[in-house]
Design brief:
Mean pLDDT of chain B: 81
Largest interface: A-B, 66 and 74 residues
Mean pLDDT of chain A: 87
Number of helices of chain A: 21
Largest sheet of chain B: 8 strands, mixed
Helix content of chain B: 25-40%
Order of helices and strands of chain A: HHHHHHHHHHHHHHHHHHHHH
Number of strands of chain A: 0
Distance between the termini of chain B: 115 Å
Oligomer: heterodimer
Radius of gyration of chain B: 29 Å
Radius of gyration of chain A: 23 Å
Largest sheet of chain A: none
Chain lengths: 467, 465
């Protein structure tokens, strides 16, 4: 089930909210959320829901072991066991086919490639459990003593299948005690509407343009067409994923949870390092906080750690070499920026810095798009006109002019223009009233237009579902 | 004095405080109003989706909508059952046609309309003569039922259908329609990829019929609107249908080519194609049939001898595939011609069982406008025999895709017997069946997309099956 489906929005969600609101005690409310979350997951993964339950049970019990052995060797053994277990689960379900394919390719062996279907959201909930268990070991959080509460944290449907990677520490206190205020409901519904609009109105329609440019014969696409396709894909994936994160955060607010932001207008970045401080923040911070802690890297081998992080970031996105290349590609630019140093970077004219990072980002998302290495090679050739197709073609011109307002809207919405207007409007009472009244119209428009467009979008899952 | 000043300040502060409290309450009220309106919207839509009657068919897309799935444990554990419920719920939204039309209008406003051109789908790979020696490959884009490569609306409207099992779906669509459609001046134009190697093979397959049967064999490769209505500016987006037809003709051995391309070119200013459908009109078929009759040296009826029937409000299949409201908002007239001579029509199933009498041109009263092209014989998945009063001893077999359907009424004054088989559905060995019928003339009537792409192998399949 995806958030941007009529079934979720107009059946599952209202039913869940009504049941939640009908219960008053926190214990029952948690039960409602747990049941609906497991049903949500089982809807798409009738068998793998047991993997989720078992995996959560193992981590829960190892959490208890850590609690009983604070500061002792037992805690280290438990945390190591849990991390190995979690990574092994990820390895088996996500990477086994990829690993065997590569072993076969390198050694010439003919080992049967395991055909294991990737359970939805495994990358997200596994990372959440790793963060919990390490935080328990570091005594950053109290160990959760109730399995249903822990399972509810892991399976909480707003963030279960496509993030953000919500740390246990973020919602630790809210698991046992929370309240949905008017502001929570207001912000929650507004974020839900905005996220829905981002996904359905912008991302889905940008996707049509991107696939028209990139899913056909690449050899037909001109230089401008290739750059346009990659740039629009960067926008598409931003609206798709940040739209999902908005919906997740909004749904969380409706139930009284306050998740951290996952995106912070990444395209306003001045350099690539900053881009990653603004893009998929929950993943970047996960690697920063947990992977760089590994003693052989960290501060001692700063650059080794950096490339390890980016190798893992790439691989996390998918079991395919293009994702690894994509991760290392960004790692390389961050490495270069670190070598240049912040002070020298700041001396570069701001226009040049923007041009530089946008080019890097656009090419980066081109790499992200093409899982087939052969097509990725064609993409690179197209970027510099080595396919002999000329600078611009009629198809590209039509694709652009036919969607120019959509593209402009996407650009405007990817910068904090609306946010600034909102802040300005809050300064006087009249404009503040106008702002609040207009928000009603905006929310309604987003919900209605998105819902209408969903009638025409039978199957358009979020891109990050596959990760 | 001091006291009065203090008093004034106090009053002022109180007023400000009151105003602030009032302001806060008003803002809070608007926020609450926002919550209530949004929540009510969700509830009202949710209730409507539950209580309102759900449609079962889509006129625009010409298909039966998803049905509620039957439960089985295997389907449940594979996720098929739950996915089926969701598909049913999303696919059968009450008023879906209206909402789809609104979506199409919204999408129309995503860009500039001044050039009257819109593109739907991906660019086609164009075959070139230089690639003639490469192994045969299907370079014309796959049909719209292939969800992977199809852009936009098409993906969304075809993923859950199973056309083969559904009598309401027009089987004509399968394998013939390109997913790359340019809409220019309210006309849908499918961009053509072509394949010279496939064309060569197609020609060789037809030669095999000539060798096996030793009768008159003709090849009519029917061009599509892209040859006549694509603005010069966009010619680079498509391969040349004429070059692909010429290529096929080059490889014919004893098979007579019928120049439908040239015949239609002379009449390009007439309504030889439907603007909103992927088929030609019967008028277009008539001119092609005229050229065929000339080559086959058979009589041919004047257009004036036909009874002309016009039906307004026709929006063909291309709207369903593009979601382009320019097509929907500009319906056209569907025109067909009823032959005046006497003839009887017999239908068989594709395995030559279930013989029954019928009409060559079916009654369209209960047919959705999008399917009006079905007027010619009603379906592709049948074999048709037309026995006429011509009495010239000439027996024609037409091996065709859906373009061939419109030819049949144009030839009732030319042959004594006309047998029509669809290369995609015929289940009997063609050679033995044609021999049994005593065929004197065999016409292959396929459009360029079929002949060089998705269906070129079908004619060999029915010859050897």
């Amino acid at each position: 089930m995806v958030f941007s489906s009529l079934f979720f929005l107009y059946f599952f969600l209202p039913l869940c909210v009504i049941c939640y609101a009908a219960t008053k005690k926190m214990h029952y409310r948690n039960m409602v959320l747990l049941i609906f979350s497991l049903a949500f997951y089982a809807w798409g993964e009738p068998l793998c829901v047991f993997l989720l339950i078992i995996s959560a049970a193992v981590n829960f019990m190892l959490g208890l072991v850590i609690d009983k052995n604070k500061g002792k060797i037992g805690s280290k053994i438990a945390v190591t066991t849990a991390v190995v277990f979690d990574i092994a689960i990820l390895g088996v379900f996500k990477y086994s086919g990829f690993i065997v394919e590569n072993i076969n390719a390198v050694t010439g062996l003919d080992i049967a490639v395991p055909q294991i279907r990737l359970p939805i959201g495994i990358s997200f909930f596994t990372f959440q459990m790793i963060s919990y268990i390490i935080d328990c070991h570091w005594e950053k959080v109290e160990v959760q003593k109730s399995y249903p509460k822990f399972l509810m944290y892991v399976s909480l449907f707003p963030q279960l299948v496509a993030g953000p990677i919500v740390r246990y520490s973020t919602i630790e206190s809210e698991i046992s005690s929370r309240k949905t205020t008017t502001d929570d409901l207001y912000c929650g519904i507004s974020r839900l509407a905005v996220g829905l609009g981002k996904k359905v109105i912008i991302a889905n329609n940008l996707s049509t343009v991107v696939t028209s440019l990139f899913d056909g014969e690449l050899s037909n696409i001109s230089v401008v067409g290739t750059w346009l396709g990659a740039a629009l894909y960067a926008l598409q994936i931003y609206f798709d994923f940040s739209g999902y994160s908005d919906m997740a955060i909004g749904l969380g607010r409706i139930f009284g949870f306050h998740f951290d932001e996952n995106f912070n207008y990444p395209f306003i970045c001045k350099d690539v390092s900053e881009f990653w401080q603004r893009w998929h923040i929950s993943l970047s911070s996960f690697f920063r906080d947990y992977l760089l802690y590994v003693p052989i890297f960290g501060k001692r081998r700063k650059y080794g750690g950096l490339f390890l992080v980016w190798f893992c970031t790439g691989l996390w996105h998918g079991a395919s070499w293009n994702f690894v290349i994509w991760g290392l590609y960004f790692g390389l630019f961050i490495f270069i920026e670190q070598k240049i140093g912040k002070k020298k970077m700041k001396r570069i004219p701001i226009v040049l810095r923007h041009i530089y990072n946008k080019i890097v980002i656009i090419i980066g998302f081109g790499i992200f798009y093409f899982e087939d290495i052969g097509r990725l090679g064609e993409f690179f050739k197209n970027l510099v006109g080595l396919n002999g197709n000329g600078f611009i073609d009629e198809f590209t011109k039509l694709s652009f002019t036919n969607n120019i307002y959509l593209i402009l809207a996407a650009l405007v919405c990817s910068f904090p223009i609306a946010k600034h207007i909102g802040n300005l409007a809050k300064k006087t009472a009249v404009t503040n009233y106008a702002l609040e009244v207009s928000k009603i119209a905006i929310n309604m428009a987003l919900i209605l237009v998105s819902s209408i467009m969903l009638v025409d979008a039978t199957n358009n899952p979020f891109l990050y579902f596959r990760f | 004095m001091d006291n009065r000043e203090d008093f004034n300040i106090d009053i002022d502060l109180r007023r400000r405080k009151k105003r602030r409290v009032k302001k806060r309450y008003t803002i809070k009220f608007i926020k609450r109003l926002n919550i209530i309106i949004c929540a009510l919207t969700f509830v009202v839509i949710a209730v409507c989706l539950i209580i309102l009657k759900r449609p079962e068919v889509s006129e625009i897309e010409n298909r039966t909508l998803a049905k509620f799935p039957k439960f089985s444990f295997s389907d449940y554990f594979s996720g098929k059952f739950t996915a089926g419920i969701e598909t049913f719920y999303n696919d059968t939204v009450p008023g879906r046609e209206t909402f789809k039309n609104i979506t199409a209008s919204i999408r129309d406003r995503f860009g500039l309309q001044s050039e009257e051109v819109k593109i739907h789908g991906t660019p086609v790979k164009q075959d070139s003569r230089a690639e003639n020696d490469t192994p045969k490959e299907k370079t014309t884009q796959p049909p719209v039922t292939d969800s992977k490569v199809t852009g936009g609306t098409t993906v969304q409207t075809t993923v859950q259908t199973e056309p083969e099992e559904d009598p309401l779906d027009d089987p004509n669509i399968e394998g013939e329609i390109s997913n790359n459609i340019l809409v220019y001046k309210n006309r849908g134009i499918m961009l053509f990829g072509g394949s010279y190697s496939n064309g060569q093979t197609y020609a060789e397959y037809m030669n095999s019929y000539k060798r096996d049967l030793g009768i008159n064999v003709y090849s009519m490769v029917c061009p599509t609107p892209v040859s006549y209505y694509l603005p010069t500016k966009y010619e680079d987006m498509t391969a040349s249908e004429k070059d692909n037809i010429d290529n096929i003709n080059e490889y014919l051995d004893g098979v007579v080519p019928i120049d439908a391309y040239g015949a239609l070119m002379e009449h390009k200013d007439e309504d030889i194609y439907q603007r909103t459908d992927h088929h030609w009109s019967q008028l277009g078929a008539y001119y092609a049939a005229q050229e065929f009759a000339k080559q086959a040296d058979v009589p041919f009826a004047k257009l004036s001898s036909y009874e002309k029937v016009e039906k307004d409000g026709y929006v063909g299949t291309l709207y369903g595939y593009t979601g382009d409201s320019d097509l929907k908002d500009n319906p056209e007239t569907f025109t067909y011609y009823i032959p005046s001579n006497n003839y009887t029509t017999t239908y068989y199933d594709t395995d030559m069982t279930n013989e029954r009498e019928g009409s060559l041109l079916i009654n369209l009263d209960n047919v959705d406008p999008v399917s009006w092209y079905l007027v010619f014989m009603g379906t592709d998945a049948a074999v048709t025999h037309v026995h006429t009063d011509v009495g010239n001893g000439r027996k024609l077999a037409i091996v065709k895709d859906s373009y061939g359907n419109a030819l049949v009424p144009c030839l009732t004054s030319s042959f004594e017997d006309i047998y029509v088989v669809d290369a995609r559905y015929f289940e009997v060995n063609a050679i033995s069946q044609f021999t049994e019928w005593g065929i004197t003339d065999l016409l292959f009537a396929m459009n360029t997309f079929s002949a060089t792409g998705s269906n070129f192998e079908c004619i060999e399949q029915i010859r050897t099956q």
